[in-house]
What we know:
Largest sheet: none
Structural class: mainly alpha
Distance between the termini: 102 Å
Number of strands: 0
Amino acid sequence: MAAGAHPLAPDHLPAFITAPGETDVLMVVTAAILLMAVLGVGLLYLRLHAMPERMAHKSQKIQFEIVAVLGLLALFTHVHLFWVAGLLLALIDVPDFSGQFGRMAHALERIAGITPRRTAEGEATVTEARGADAADLPASKPEGGSHA
């Protein structure tokens, strides 16, 4: 650069000043750092955003699906309350009520005197499997009963 330098220019120029026609190294390095920073922040944002889904993945299927829907709603609507609700739902273990409701249904069938239903595999329900309890059940009522 000294050959075509202006007579009033200083003898020593800083390293970030380039000669005409040469590659501007400072601009290339700055662009690369900016690109990596944008990609890194985007990756961090998406990982943080998917955190409730990853936490709920080990839980029940319906809980995972609700958390996933809340995460998508938060992502597309920018309503952060959906993300917070999904995070709280992922942190809470929802108990499995199906076993308790099944036992309640069998007890109500036994009280009402209804013949126990069979499951899809053809297995007997709890009242039939007990044997001794099945003998003292009242006879089942006909299907076309008088009550509405």
